Amino acid sequence: MKASIALQVLPLSQGIDRIALIDQVIAYLEAQGVSMVVTPFETVLEGDFEELMRILKEALEVAGQGADNVFANVKINIGEILSIDEKLEKYHETAY
Question: Which residue ranges run through the membrane (predicted)?
Answer without folding.
Answer: none
